């Protein structure tokens, strides 16, 4: 008896509607018959006898936007016995983007052996966080959902300050009143009663440079109730460039419906990597930030710094023996990683895996890549035998040609 009760409780974990589905629903199209519209909200109305139903078009989908981010543990879907009610092979995506093709969300699972006339309890292949849940059916069949229920815990992931904000902050200008300076560091000092505040100038911004590259999952911003504290429509950019206009970074999101007097939990439209986080406000209003918190995981560099002074050939041999090769820098992201890696170098320059061949008359990467992206200092990209490239660890981290017998620290590819 005890075992049967346990099995029943385990089997019915999705039947307890512990996420109240009051969010906004949508679907790719709506099937209509006579005066009856099979709208998307029917999938969460508590009535299994009336269903959401798309038209018979290519790649149908249904989506709900929850009111907060959830850690989804189970999804229960009920379809009554009817034509097109079998949704075997439909995909379920969960994330913080409303894109319906799953390109900016995590795939929860593929529905297998769907049964009509009962609840199908569907579990993600791994834990997935998000506020958008999308059911997507490829092919030309309509998508039918009579009832959808969810189980999961609310995730206030921004309340855990798991990125210690000890980086360098900056802002476009600093508002001053009497002897009080509203400096940029106030946004990360742990005190919500004193704020960073720019002057009333065009296109204000605030920025922090973290000590390492992070995969940012959530940003929490608190502003006390005050004039200019509403930062609705401000843009958040994340990347490895300190440009404040976002031209060299990815746009995380636009802040919507900002509320004063509480933490606003802001999630990027898609996963974004970077060490520079910029909040930018267009127009002539000052930018006020009383407290900023970040959540995200640390990203490992593809490079490692060797703090030994060697010639280029010895450095090449060392890297190939202990790692993979001398570092190749093929794009701006690689350059950013190299800049971070070189920060602790004991020499002004660090060797890279870039060499000039007199025989073929061109520069090449020793990992067998053509030279396309470059960060040469002016006049340094010249053809000269017995030369290799080294990156300066300061002053824009430009590349210089150096004789092979000079000795520097060097960067290896892991």
TrEMBL record:
A Pfam family it matches: F5_F8_type_C_2
Entries under InterPro entries matching the protein: BG_Antigen-Binding_Lectin, C-type_lectin-like, C-type_lectin-like/link_sf, CTDL_fold, FTP1, Galactose-bd-like_sf
GO biological process: regulation of cellular defense response; regulation of complement activation, lectin pathway
Record bears the keyword Disulfide bond: yes
Cleaved signal peptide residues: 1-16
GO MF, one annotated term: metal ion binding
Keywords: Calcium, Disulfide bond, Lectin, Metal-binding, Signal
Classification via SMART domains: CLECT, FTP
Assembly mode: Homotrimer.
Role this protein plays: Acts as a defensive agent. Recognizes blood group fucosylated oligosaccharides including A, B, H and Lewis B-type antigens. Does not recognize Lewis A antigen and has low affinity for monovalent haptens.
Protein name, as recorded: Uncharacterized protein LOC108888077
Encoding gene, per UniProt annotation: LOC108888077
